[in-house]
Write a structure and sequence with these properties.
Layout: H1 2-17, H2 20-46, H3 60-87, H4 96-127, H5 130-158, H6 166-193, H7 201-210, E1 217-226, E2 229-238, H8 244-261, E3 265-273, H9 280-290, E4 294-303, E5 306-315, H10 321-338, E6 342-351
Parallel strand pairs: 2-3, 5-6
Antiparallel strand pairs: 1-2, 4-5
Length: 358
């Protein structure tokens, strides 16, 4: 109703003053009236639950309506742009009294636009609605274009006709603003319609899922948007010795963890067996091999939840004790970095000839 009232008032002022800038702003408002009607219909349809023909719901109707609004906005802007360019060489002075009335109407319109924009932005955030967000873009542009037209009228009026061409400049500015808004709105709508992944969401979900007990790895997350809902399918890896019941419990825990932090997400979890945990002995041998060392008789014992590790390191008979000690000390440092649960390490240096098979 606010859009319709502003549109009729601005059209009346455009007729009384002959101002192309006011006419452009009135047409911009008229587009908003149509956009609001489209938004009402889109929100009503998108609120329907999923059914047999739309398994993921009807949320993308909002994005489709936003794209339609961007096309209407762009076509209107192109017409205004064409008129402004054609009339630029034939400016005419605006009548004083009607122009003053027009300035009052524009000031009132700016106040209404501020109120409308605040209401729509708050509602769009609250409900996560793409259609409401699109309407808020329209009304924000209304606010800016009304301010631009107001400045153009004031300059034309105060110059007593010497700056009559400012009316055409105001119309050009309104058209450019509308085209910019239409492009941004269309790009955002197309991103959702072609299932572009929302930026940063996969990283947030990775952090949440990895904190769930029993999850060893999250090799894949796929996200797509549909209206105010996000649909996620993810693959998690668990201990390969876990039972089916344990795997299902971990998957359920992932779903609960995600939904508790993002209520608008619908997630499907696929469970896969992860790689078996390498033994402590295998880890020690791998670290030693990376340093060019040979070790054997690797043993680990757990006492009161503390791990005690021992191994034998082999060196050539002509290697000095100082060199061997330095290499083993470095290996111990690497073991502690890789296995922080190890409490003590007992290493034994021996020549190759005395080595024993592990």
């Amino acid at each position: 109703m606010a859009s319709l009232a502003m549109t009729l008032l601005k059209l009346l002022m455009a007729l009384l003053t002959g101002s192309l800038a006011i006419l452009s702003d009135a047409l911009h408002n008229a587009v908003d009236v149509l956009a609001t009607i489209i938004t009402l219909i889109a929100v009503h349809i998108s609120d329907r639950p999923a059914d047999q023909t739309h398994n993921y719901g009807h949320g993308k109707v909002e994005n489709l309506s936003a794209f339609a609004e961007s096309i209407i906005l762009a076509l209107t802007a192109l017409w205004i742009l064409w008129r402004a360019i054609m009339d630029f060489g034939h400016p005419h002075a605006l009548p004083t009294v009607p122009t003053i009335f027009a300035i009052v109407v524009l000031c009132a319109a700016i106040g209404v636009d501020i109120w409308r924009t605040m209401q729509l932005v708050a509602s769009a955030k609250k409900f996560g609605s793409e259609a409401l967000r699109a309407s808020s873009v329209h009304f924000r542009m209304d606010l800016i274009s009304a301010a631009v037209v107001l400045i153009a009228l004031l300059m034309s009026l105060l110059s007593h006709g010497r700056l009559a061409w400012m009316d055409n400049v105001g119309a050009l500015a309104v058209a450019i603003l509308m085209i910019g808004a239409a492009i941004r709105l269309a790009m955002h709508s197309v991103d959702v319609l072609v299932d572009r992944a929302p930026e940063g969401v996969d990283k947030q979900l990775q952090d949440i899922i990895r904190r769930v007990p029993g999850v060893r790895d999250v090799p894949r997350i796929r996200v797509r948007q549909g209206g105010n809902r996000r649909f996620v399918d993810t693959t998690i890896r668990v201990n390969p010795t876990a039972t089916l019941e344990e795997g299902h419990r971990i998957a359920t825990s992932v779903e609960l963890a995600v939904s508790s932090e993002h209520s608008s997400i619908d997630i499907t979890v696929h469970v896969e067996p992860g790689d078996a945990e390498p033994s402590l002995a295998a880890i020690v041998r791998s670290l030693a091999e990376a340093m060019g060392l040979a070790v054997h008789a690797v043993h680990a014992h757990t006492i009161n939840e503390r791990v005690y590790l021992s191994f034998h390191a082999e060196f050539g008979a002509d290697i000095t004790v100082a060199y061997a000690h330095g290499k083993v000390t470095e290996l111990e440092k690497r073991i502690r970095m890789r296995l922080p649960q190890v409490a003590e390490i007992a290493s034994h240096i021996e020549p190759v000839s005395a080595g024993a098979e592990s």
